[in-house]
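CORE FACILITY INTAKE
Project code: CF-77B
Contact: R.S. (postdoc)
Sample description: multi-component assembly, two entities in total
Requested service: structural model of the whole complex
Turnaround: standard
Below are the sequence entries exactly as provided by the requester. Do not edit them.
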Amino acid sequence: MPINKQPVDVVIIGLGWTGSLIGMEMTDAGLDVVALERGADRTKEDFLYPKPADELKYGVRLGMMQSPRTDGVTIRRNGGETALPQRQWTTFHPGNGVGGCGAHWTGVLYRATPTELSMKSFADATFSPGFLPENMVMQDYGVTYDELEPHFDLFERIAGLSGQAGNLNGEIIDGGNPFEGPRSNPFPLPPLPRTLTDTLFTEATQSLGWHPYPYPSANVSQAYTNPYGMQLGPCNFCGFCSNYGCLNYSKASPQTCVLDALKRRDNFSYRTQCDVRRINKAGDGQTVTGVTYIDGDGNEVFQPAKMVFLCSFTLSNVRLLLLSGIGQPYDPISNTGVVGRNFTYQITGSVDMYFERHQFNPFISAGGSGQVIDDFAPDAFDTEQHGFIGGSYIYTTQGPGGAIGGTRVPPGSPSWGSEWKRNAQREYGHHMMIGTTGSNMAYRDCYLDLDPNYRDPHGDPLLRMTYDWKENDMRMTMFMADRIREIVDELGPDYHTESFHKVGDQFDPSHYQSTHLTGGAVMGTDPQTSVVNRYLQHWDAHNLFVMGASNFPQNMMHNPTGTVAALTFWSVRKIRESYLANPGPLMSRS
Amino acid sequence: MPKNDFQPDRRALLKGSLLMLPAMGTGIGLIATAGADEAPPHIDDYTPTFFSTEEWQFILAATDRLIPEDETGAGALGTNVPIFLDLQLGSEYGSADNWYMEGPFPKGAPAAFGYQLPFTPADLYRYGIAATRRYCQDTYQADFPELEAKRQIEVLSGLENGDIHFAPQQGRELPSATFFSFLLKNTKEGYFADPQYGGNKHMGGWKMLGFTGARASFREWVDQYDRPYPLGPVSLSGERG
């Protein structure tokens, strides 16, 4: 028999960025809120210097991440293959514990552009009829940039975003990103200081006629107090950022920006090591009654709640909806159902350059430090003449120069022995990267469902990812590779190596690509093609709300966290304004 | 402005070093040469707990070939890399506690699917070491550690290239290149990971490379372009090198 807990107003599944922000908003509304986190607690004790500065524990053994043993996923590239599990994480790094991905992220904080939020409308207005591939399933988000702008702005103030505005209320500002959507306010803080790689990239791209700007960084450039009264200290470029917790209270995270303020509230509590197994459906067919979880002692517990917020990672959100039987699972053959539909990723590539003449000191590094160009955004140039829809940003960032992950030797040279040592010693600190991160369109045969063969320790099926690279997106990344080669020519390294995908390549999950997995529980205005409505309310259960990048109908070129947070505020403000007084569907199904 | 033309002088270095010590004044104790109370052992005085005596002799000889001591700096033996391997393989890493290790494990999975063998790292080392020693006996009538260095390098290259074939165990074959990739990856981890994990003795690996370890505070150095960073590494325990 499960243990029955006292009912609460709100239960939050997953205490990362979105769960923390929902906690603030719903306790503000005077409701009793309980958050359930399946991983461990993470408090400031875990981030005290020098604990995070441990490359083996965090950078290599991935100590901040979920365990594939308990939370695995299988992958195949098409319906003809048998999916196999990620036995260790390789291609992405899903976070675990309080803070979630927000504790180990890099701190690059972007907004979606107006075009990216309305991609279908943009495509219909811009591209020749019949240009887009037949199996591409493009959708608008159902919310516009203007509607989200105040929420982008609020989250950037919570995170202490450091950078340079490029578009302030429609006025283009020198040194910022001229291709971004209009901002109502400047950045809360100025950009981080420039590294050598930043300066080289800036000079080269300017001489090519492009528009470099500083990475919008949630590693703060100056001491800062956010609207919740949380305080951040200036980033000291410690070199331990992506995959690590911050040892300097400089990287915006649920811990540094929200949780100490939230934990002070009497109407908020959270429980760790609580693994939610099901969202419980009500007999009325229109609502959910709460959640069932396994606690740290192995007890099955039922937590009744008036409202449920699903705030876990993209893959976990989709899996829990499928396991709970809420919403119709997507079937790519009949093209029916919605849960698991429009699963997308990001398209990345990079070059690595060796300069004997430069000393970069690659251990001097901040995750959000770097320089970027958006001159090849989806709406910045005529992509149709190059054979694709979509776009990418091109960037550099210094380091990270960890000894295990940061050694470089010339291609074709030995990987061990004295020659390897000589090369590694000579070249350490003399390498610079340029990368590209690009949009990924949704396709009818790229989706998530439950795996028929592999199960977790509770006997539940793993999530199965069916995903491959498509010609449109490969054409895009090949175009970007050519632009990066122009920058390489400007810079004139002694040699460089390339890592780009091309048309015909298949998805290769054996190497790290990105943790920007999106879609599967997408938002929209049509219940036939979306899991949640434009307020992130589940079409089939009006007291269930789904947060996170699983809402994205297709992926943008930029990093997702800013858009995830803005959508969270957009949803919860509507809930506070309309839903609490009058619970029910916020949009009609027809 | 970037200081591309910076000429270091003693006064600036001293001033810089005062600014840069991350733990200065925080009571973490960077002052003492660390490890004074628990100095890392000499490799010859260590008794392995995971590896058998024969396996240990193989690991000593193989890691010495992978990262030899030479003019660039310390090697695997001088930095206790075999101790790192012994401790890692006897812990949760060796038993793959976090990995998804439920079957089925189909044979011939494409490389794109990553590691798809049923062996934990501990299993893989036991199998790989035994199979390599058997290959040396069959081919050279001698155990690996007894071979001359040139021959050892040939054997290791044979593993790396997959030219040596291991006999199946319980119906499953471990590709020799897979064994070698684990051995090399873990050896480099031991050479470059913080000394608290048993290798990188006195931060010899970091000194060879020029890595600063857990120093982790560089704000004043961000715009000092093309200037080598002058301070040595710091370990998690506060040892300075």
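Facility notes:
- The two ends of chain B are 31 Å apart (CA to CA).
- Chain B touches chain A through 63 residues (CB under 8 Å).
Invoice: internal transfer
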